[in-house]
TrEMBL record:
Keyword DNA damage applies: no
Official protein name in the record: Glucuronyl hydrolase
Lineage per the UniProt record: Bacteria, Pseudomonadati, Pseudomonadota, Gammaproteobacteria, Enterobacterales
PANTHER family linked: HYDROLASE, PUTATIVE (AFU_ORTHOLOGUE AFUA_7G05090)-RELATED
Origin: domain of life: Bacteria
Keyword Hydrolase: yes
Keywords attached to this entry: Hydrolase
Binding residue positions for substrate: 94, 155, 212, 214, 226, 230
Active site annotation, chain numbering: 94 (nucleophile), 155 (proton donor)
Swiss-Prot/TrEMBL GO biological process terms: polysaccharide catabolic process
Family (UniProt): Belongs to the glycosyl hydrolase 88 family.
Molecular function terms from GO: chondroitin hydrolase activity
Amino acid sequence: MTIRLNEDFMNWLSDAIDKCLAKTQANVEQFTDFPHITEQGKYVFTPDGVWTGGFWTGILWLAYQRNPSPALLTAATHFTDRLLPRAHDRRNHDLGFMFYPGAIAGWRLTQRSDYKQAALTAANSLAAQFNARAGFIPGWGFFGGEEWSTSVLIDTLMNLPLLAWAVKNGGDPALLAVIEQHTATALAHHLRANGSVFHVYHFTEEGVGIRGDTYQGLAAQSSWARGQGWAITGLALLADALNNHHYLATAEKVADFILSHLPPDHIPKWDYDDPQPNAPKDASAGAISAYGLLRLYRLSGKERYKTAATAMLKALAATCIVDDNQGLLAHSTADLPHGLGIDQATGYGDYYFLKALYALEAISAAR
């Protein structure tokens, strides 16, 4: 019976990976710009990648890792090369999203020195945005004309591993202080007693906390699902990179909140506090959270994290890989309050879904 169960497990997992890679191959033959989010199942593209371009390059490198074909290498290098000038961005807290999945992955697979240098430059550009007086990197975002210089997004935790990587690869050790101070500020204000996190926190120019808020969630005090995913995964990545037990313990606290609020179908609502029984789902939040849970399992050895991640990924594979959407992961919600990408696919959802599937496969193979 155990053998059969293992076969059943590997069958759905391998099938999900194969379907994602087949769709990626089909997309490679069509996409000439960076996919952002879908509308009616078709991707909307951006020429410069806005903040999501790194996820498409990341998918391409993941596909190439599995199938090192000339066509995939050409596509991966083409799109990675196009992002390299963004390493000099000075009002962009998402440089980790843009360079970790793409340039760093490409450097590891090809040893191209310009990819490594671009990632180091991006790390310096991210650190240069640090407000030392206030103790944080502003969550600039790409939100039109709104002023964000005194606001911090929980998303930024996901970008700090770029700084940790840089220090380990010839960067300035002072980058570690940026990680420590920003994370301390974020955890002191974003983290709630129940393990959930605010999406946004506003500060004075001097770094005094004013209030928690949201931009893409239901309400200031609610628990926007993708934000919880960013928190658990960002903290798990930092805990691993820096061997930091406080970050690990905090990631587990966020994980426990997520696990206690997942609906019976294992796919998060777009906001855990939305009272509507038919509230939109956010498959991307599920994929991001599942990846974070698998990273926690690797660090802690606690089976409940692997079990939960497996259930989430299996549910996503069963219901969110659909033929009529160019994305790998349908039924995501990009930004419900602003009417963007509702019940659609997103670049980040696609990337973390495939990344989590690979992670689960690696864990299973090691057992």
